[in-house]
Each structure stands twice: as structure tokens, then as C-alpha cells.
Amino acid sequence: MVVIARRLAGHLARGVVMILVVATISFFIVRSIPGDPVAAHTQKLIEQGMAPEAAAQATRVLYGFQPKGSLWEQYGDYLHGLLTFDLGQSVTHAGAPVTDVLAEAAKWTVLPVLAGTLLSFLVGIILGVYAAIKRTGKLGDALAISGSLLHGVPQYVLGLLLSAIFATLIPILPADGPVDILFEPGFNAGYIASLFDHAVLPVATYALAAYGGWILAMKSSVVTVLGDDFILAAELRGMKRSIIFRYIARNAILPLFTILALSLGLLLGGAVFIERIFNYPGLGLLLIESITMRDYALMGGAFLIITVSIIVANIVADLFYSVIDPRVRSGEEVSA
Amino acid sequence: MAKQAPGVRIDGLTVVYKTPAGELPAVRDVTLTLEPGTITGIVGESGSGKSTLALSLLNAVQPPGRIAAGSVDIDGLGDVVALRGENLRKARGKHVGYVFQAAQNSLNPLKTVGKQLLDLGRSHGVDDLRGLVREAKELLGRMGLDGARVLDSHQHELSGGMRQRVGIMLALVLNAHLVVLDEPTTALDMITQANILKIVREVHAERGLTTLVITHDIGVVAEVADRLAVMYGGRLVEQGPTRQVLGAPRHPYTRGLIKAIPRLVGDIAEAQALPGRPPTLVTVPKEGCVFRERCPLRMDVCDTVDPAALADGPRVVACHAVNVKEHA
């Protein structure tokens, strides 16, 4: 436990440093994108014949604030806000706190991504084991081919395809947002059923897009473990099949946990296309919108949340390893 | 459960491997008897079929290989070749213990030795798991290890010599009285080798085992084996009491092997390597003697007729040149 606690402390320290670095980079990059929404609006009003003072005043009324101080002073304010989890206000959401806007969007991204990824992970690894064991037969071939095929199709093509088939050609599923606006939000059957209904296509897209990767990765991992000496040794010692199967599964699944953690971290930011196709007001759509509108605070916040989720995913994966792999736990090198 | 050393009769055993060139024999028509309570050593080069022969004792030849003919009759177990499914699984480990080459990782890297011991016990329906652990600690202690510590360790925390002793413990802990050791000392340093061989000899005597040792190292069999069998190209070319075979080898291959051993004293040039290379599955001759390409005593008959293994007292030799001379 001491080892794990020390690992955690080290990871957290490094994680905080990384977050600061990324926050700094995104702060300056975002602000060097051409186009300044406040200046643009003021300029527009001046061109419409308003006096500069009045134009600035009108803009302040519209956006609720005016940038003050130099870029460095703004950076100082930003860092100070960061420490108190204050990411500023979003100019495009009528001055609402960025954290609120992000939290609202996050629920439409996190749940479908989590459901889709876990679903594809479970199905992919189970079928991957079969694909490995039956690799010389027709079933194994079929599974491997299905994996390669789906792995090769880009996520947004799958999304468009599913949307075209199940929402347009055979309109049995909705693709028009996260929930039907007819229902009152809350714990009533209609609302929840509508949530599920609307989630089917995006979740299926996430799952199908990731499934190919899982099945191929699991297959090759199982094939490697099957060739390991200790599996033959266990057979020659007369171990039960169920026990040998557990030996194989546990050893084969090990390398896949890193990929799982990383893909969960990455998917939070990579959901842009799918959210666009299915009109989910999630983080991906929010990011695109904030970039178009030059909403600096929101952009910075969206970048930050993606960064943090990847860093956290890494830390979780690493700690998880120390729990499940004794070779990592004792801090020794993993022998090949 | 067999409480005393079982005898083993291997009769006409042929094991083939499926290759693009058809099914080719890795072990051909091998007949060998392991007397109860003895240590038998099988010597051969890589690819001579000795490991395949060892796996046959557990009916565990791995695909694409299969036992094509012959039988392996073990006292208290019957013909292992005919065993299937659960009966076969239960025989493995409980009746026949198998010890892997030390360099091979024969343990699950994610579990402690102790947990794998319990898995083994549960697989074989052992009710008294505490007793099993006690027995394992005793065996490990007998081999000079701290049993409690070893059971609490993972494979990567053990040295090669320690792993090998764990392997021997796992082969014996279910009270198997027939033990197969596949290259038990390969990849170990000289001191550890000597230690392991001493342990094999002592445990063999103390527990009353029938032991089969597979090795490419004539020194190993010279040290532990009562009987010695020499394999070449999937055939047993010579067998007999170890001292007699090593002292007065008859088959030209055995003679060549012994001549090839460098001596500790004297001129290194006295050691003469056998000319040519051992056959592989594909290059081994389909008919005639498997050794003729490298044989100094080659005759015309060797090209066409496979020499029969003929017994002369306790010794068996499969060679036209030797047997013609002896029986003329």
C-alpha cells in the first residue's frame, strides 16, 4: 500500500504540473487566434456610427465585461481563477460561468461515451478470446474480418451510416438531439425512455467504432498468452479448464487496460463528429462552437477538461496496473 | 492412488507432426521400458524427438502433432494414449508429474506460487488444502528453500534454481510417483545444476519414484540415470545400463557423442565433433537407417532397410553394422 500511495503522490504532482503547462499553452494559443469578439463588436458599433465610448459601453452591456490589463495580467488572473476552479465567464452564454456550461455539456458526452466504450470493450474482449481460440476456423476468420472492417471505417462515417439507415431510411430511431423536448425533465418514464431512445444511435456508433480495435487487440494478446509456457505447464499439471481459462484471460487482458483508460480520456474530446451528427449538445459541439465564437474562456475550459481527463485516465491506468500486475507493484522491470 | 513406483512400457510409439509436406514422424516406433523405481535418461540433440517422447507420457503432444501408433502403458493408469478428457486431465499432475526446463516460465506471472498451488489442489479435488500447503512447504524445505517465503512469492521474485525447485515441488506435491523432467538443468549455472541433480537423486530415492530425465547433456544422465537411452532422428538407437553404454558404447552415434565430449584434462583436440548435422523433421530419411549420412560404418543395406532394435542382455542397439557383427 505504501508503494501505491507513493506512486499516487508522484503521479498527482506530475499531473498538476502537466495541467498547468497545458493550461498555459492553451491560454496563449487561444489568444493568438486572429479575431477578438469584444473588439469586433465594438468596431462594428463604431462603424455603424456610434461614438467609441458609447460603443464600448454597449459591448460591455452585451457581454457583461471588458478585458482589462495586459495579456500577462490576464494570464495571472486566469491562473488565480484556475486555483479556485473559476474558469471565467462564457461570453456566448450570456456570462454564465464556464464551469457550469462545461458541466452541462459534459453529461451529454460522458454518459454516451462511457456506455459505448464499455459496451465495445466487453463485447470486443469476449469475442476476441473466441477469435483467438477459433483462429483456424471459420468463426475466427469471420470475427477477425469484422474487426478489421469496422476498425477501418472512420467513426463519423459509421455515425452517418447509422443515422441514414435507422433515422431516415427506416425511421425507427431518433437522431435529433439527446431527448424529446415534449417530456418534462426528471424521473418520469417518458423522459427516461426518450433519453434511452435517443442514446441508442450515438452509443451504437461509439461502440461499433471501437469494437474492431478491441477484438483485434484481444485476439493478438490471447494468441500470445496461449503460446506461453505456463499455459502448457498448467495443462500438464492437470489444471481444470476453467482455471486455465482464467489464467489466459487475466494475462491477456492486462495490456488492454491502458488502451481502455486512454481511449476513455481521449473520447471526451474526440466526440465532435458524433455529437454533430446526432445533435448532442456535448463537449465536442461546445468546443467547436466556442472556437467559432472566439469564446476564449470557454475554449480554454474545454481544452483543460480534455487535458485533465487524459491525465487522470493515465494515472488511473497506472495505479490499476499496480493492483493487478505484481511485477509492476514491486517496482521491478517486467520481463518479456 | 499408486503408492509405489509404477513401471512404464512404451511400445511401438510413433508421433507425427502435420507439415506442408504431409505428416512427418518426430518419434518413430520407439519401444522403451521404465522399470519401477529407476531413473532413466534420454539423451539426444535438439530435434531428436526426446521432448515429444516425454510429452507422450502424458498424452500431451501439442497440435499439429499427434500420436499415430503405439501405446504408453503405466501401472495403475493403463494405456495413456487411450485416455481422454477428464480422465486424462486427472492423470496429469496426480499420477505423472512433469517438470519443465528451468528457463521456461512454467508459472503464471500474475499469481503467487501458493495461489497456484491451491489452484492445483482444487483442480484435483484435494479436500485438505492446508495439508497440501504443509506438504509443499516440507518439499521446498527438503530442497533447501524457505517454503513459506517461496509460496508467498511471484515467479519474477525467484531465481532460476528456485523456480526449478518449485517446478519439482509442483510435480510431486500431489504424490505422483512417475516424474518426467524435461531438461531439468538447462540454463542453470554449474553449481545450481549440481544442486538440482543431487535433489533429483535424493528425492527419487526417498519418495520411491520412477523417473525419466530428458537431456542433451550426457554429463547429466551419467550422474543420475540407472538406464540410458540415446535418441537420434526420432529413433531410439541404443539403450542399456548407463555405465555399460557410456563405458562401451556400441552404436556409432553413441560412440560419436562420447568422443565429442571435451575432457577436463588433456588435449582439447581429442574431442571430435560428429561430422554433418542432425536431421530435421523434413530431412530425416523416409527409409533405411536415420543415421547413415553421418555414419562411419555405413553399408549398402543401411540405405534401404531400417535396422531393428535388437536386445543383447540388458542392452539394445539398432544398427546393421553392430548387430551383424554380434550375431554373425
Describe the structure in your own words:
The complex is a heterodimer of chains A (336) and B (328). Chain A has helices spanning 2-32, 37-47, 52-63, 71-83, 98-133, 138-152, 155-169, 189-226, 229-236, 241-267, 272-277, 283-292, 296-324, 326-329. Chain A has 336 residues and is mostly helical. In chain A, helix 5 (98-133) runs parallel beside helix 13. Mean pLDDT of chain A is 83; it is low at 332-336. Chain B is α/β, with parallel strands linked by helices and 328 residues long. Chain B has a single domain (8-95, 176-327), classed as P-loop containing nucleotide triphosphate hydrolases (Rossmann fold, 3-Layer(aba) Sandwich). Chain B is built from eleven helices and twelve strands. Chain B has helices at residues 50-56, 85-94, 113-123, 129-142, 147-151, 160-172, 190-207, 218-224, 242-247, 252-259, 320-327; strands at residues 8-19, 22-34, 39-43, 65-74, 78-79, 96-99, 178-182, 210-215, 227-232, 235-241, 310-312, 315-317. Chain A: It is found in: Cell membrane; Membrane.
